[in-house]
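Throughout this chapter, every protein is written as a compact record of paired, labelled lines. The reader may check this reading against the record printed directly beneath this paragraph:
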Amino acid sequence: MKYHELGKEIIQNLGGPNNIESLAHCTTRLRFILKDISKVNKEALENIKEVLGVVYSGGQYMVILGPNLIPTFEAINNDFKLTTISPDNENLKKSKEERLTWKTLGNKSLSFVQAAVTPMVPGLIAGGMLKVVLLLIVTFLSPAFAKSTDYILISAIADAPFFFMPIMVAYGAAIKLGSTPAYAMMSTAALLYPTFRNLLTRITAYPGSINVTLFNLPVKVINYGTSLLPALLISLLAYWVEKFLNKSVPNIFKSVLVGMGTIFIAGSLGYLILGPLGDILGQGIAIAVMFLSKTVGPLAVGLLAAALPWLVMTGMHVALAPFMPQLISNPGYDPILKPAFLLHDMAEGGANIGVALKTKDKKLKSEAWSLAVSAIVAGVTEPSLYGINLKYKKPMYGVMAGGFVGGIVAGLLGARAYIMGYSNIFAIPVFEKTALAIVVGIITTIVVAAAVTFVLGIDDKQEKKLTEPVRKKYPDDAIVSVAKGELEPLAEVKDEAFASGALGKGVAIKLDSDFVCAPANGKITALFPTGHAFGITTKKGVELLVHIGINTVNLQGKGFDILVDQGDKVEAGQPIVKVNRATIEKEGYDLTTMLIITNLNGQNIKLKKTVGHVDIGTKLN
């Protein structure tokens, strides 16, 4: 695959490199922060073969590439030298670009939580899966292993991501806010420091033996390991304090006083106010989830599983991730979120199975089986979601139905996750004593999703919008049709300069497609900024001119989107200009497109003179 060409096409459809403020990526998506969203050609992006989907959420324009992500990201970096930020530093535009209002508060809060939790999620999953391995060893292979120092030390490795989760949250939050990560992390780490934990141990063993105060104010000594909200609150305070001190402290003292003042104030208020407040809020969340679990629990699991494909499309599912470890910490298990996430992945795979059983297209059948295995076994669902289920529309009903019914079944049977882990078939052990409940839920989900999809069928007869013509390799002496339409003699063109042959021999095409492409392998040696004309010099030295429409230069670029840059090397059939035919024809212009040989360079070239329909890439010589 030519990742450099793919990257170039993505960038051009995002408004060009000058429209991109920064670029990041996660496991499946390129995440762009753009200067002007209106410059994006979303339709063109969605119809690129390798693009699985396009989502705008939380101030980020996300292009979903799945397995093609990393090489495309690297190709874009090499070709465009954009400002890139690591996957755990997905800064969004600052508040000065979008003022904080009641309308933007929700979006900004979601964006903040997403950015804060992103760095910790891989660590939590890694630790959770290591705990699963230890559980399997002790349960099925060697119960005595649980008493060994090997088990104790490996357990410490597995538990570390959870215990130190507040520090990772503080790091992500500080990066998101643009503050110094060390200040937020150290202020939060004070809640986990051995001295503070020793006080907790003493109070637990001897209640009332010590009265803990700071500045004569009472300090609530509790266990902040695996907590989330205290770290978020402390990080926010550290950001504001650092910002205030940087403005207030003279430059000569900043290196000493800013850092010291920040961790002193944020750490102290973390003990006195923010830690206890975060704990109270966390308990409130746990109480709310437990209430839902005891009342409408099965329905809640089903509804969330059914809604997750749409949440994934908007990126909002990330906001739910931090509450899983919060629930596993208190009350000790997750009865809603993890079951719903797991069953959604099974539903995506189940719908793919339904497609594979229904379709007669061998290529689609093979792709559907492959993506089903990917979703169910590996928990990678975005290729399934964007590559098949959303693309063919009706399988989405299967996904939702499977998730809903399977969620209700799992909820009724009491499925609960006790450990963090991936949302795939290997995550069954994280449900421990309720593993059978989730297994029944998984089977139900896959069967229902596949059955509903099979019954409804797939919308495989939908009209596929052309974004990039299917290209094949042409020899260097080939000259091909630049567009789809009716070929006609140049002499019939309603422009004397072209019709007379004064500019050179050629052909004309009555345009019937939205893309005008390269007529040969070569280099773009002329490119009008208005987009109405371009020139190519082939590898054989032949010079070709493509002129789109008659007198369309008067439009000053209106209705033309240029997809390449002057000096680019191009291949025959590669899109060069996208034409908004409706806009141009509404202005009263004739879109007859001329392909002229302006310099034969000693070559003997004869173009077709027969009239009739041609497709993009039809050979003309």
Remarks:
- The first strand starts at residue 20 and ends at 25.
- Residues 251-295 form the longest helix (45 residues).
- The CA atoms of residues 426 and 568 lie 48 Å apart.
- Residues 86-98, 461-470 have pLDDT under 50 and may be disordered.
